[in-house]
From TrEMBL:
The lineage of its organism: Eukaryota, Viridiplantae, Streptophyta, Embryophyta, Tracheophyta. Residues 194-245 are annotated as: Disordered. This is PLAC8 family protein. PANTHER family: PLAC8 FAMILY PROTEIN. The keyword DNA repair does not apply. It comes from Carya illinoinensis (Pecan). Residues 201-212, 232-245 have a biased composition (Pro residues). The chain crosses the membrane at residues 118-139. Keywords: Membrane, Transmembrane, Transmembrane helix.
Amino acid sequence: MASQEHLDKMQLRQNYRNLWHSDLMGTIQADTPYCCFALWCAPCASYLLRKRALYDDMSRYVCCAGYMPCSGRCGESKCPEFCLCTEVFLCFGNSVASTRFLLQDQFNIQTTQCDNCIIGFMLCLQQIACIFSIVAMIVGSEEIQEASQLLSCLADMVYCTVCACMQTQHKIEMDKRDGKFGPQPVMAVPPMQQMSRIDQPFPPSVGYPPQPAYGQPYGYPPPQAQQGYPAAYPPPAYPPPGYPR
């Protein structure tokens, strides 16, 4: 019954309308220092991000954010900090995924197709490395064993890199939530607009970009009102009195 609820939630996430503020490909450029921190000290980053996702209220903590069968059965209410430390060190992958699901459900965020491809590639590479390791153990061939070791090393590198980018993505999203994301555009009250006067050849450009002057400048009557000339005929060649030279 619980597994069916989780499947329904995963299906519901595909219909979310919002997107991550930064995709996985852009997290390194968006916040390089934190991405390095998440790469070299991944469990610490996972601990801090989960606590921040709960608004630093550890009374709300549930193991794996309630998305795993063990959630709520590990004595989280008695010592949530210790349980979170255990989660991020022993179940690191689940801790990162749980924080991701928590943010997605809270802000209705869907994962882009590019991010899904990156995560899917990481998971498939781990499965292939595991299969090669089993085949190498059964066959006993040194060539297959070396190939499996290289593939396992590559899978671990991709896993660590993708997890670091995911955690950086979570951090950027919470920076946006808390109003800490970079310089935000200042929504100031526009300046008071001024009406043009007769003694002004051109209207003031306050509040609007300067517009090119076509024909007669603002503040003068239309051509047909000048000295009785009809609209089809141009005004006199000489400038009228007061016209700026």
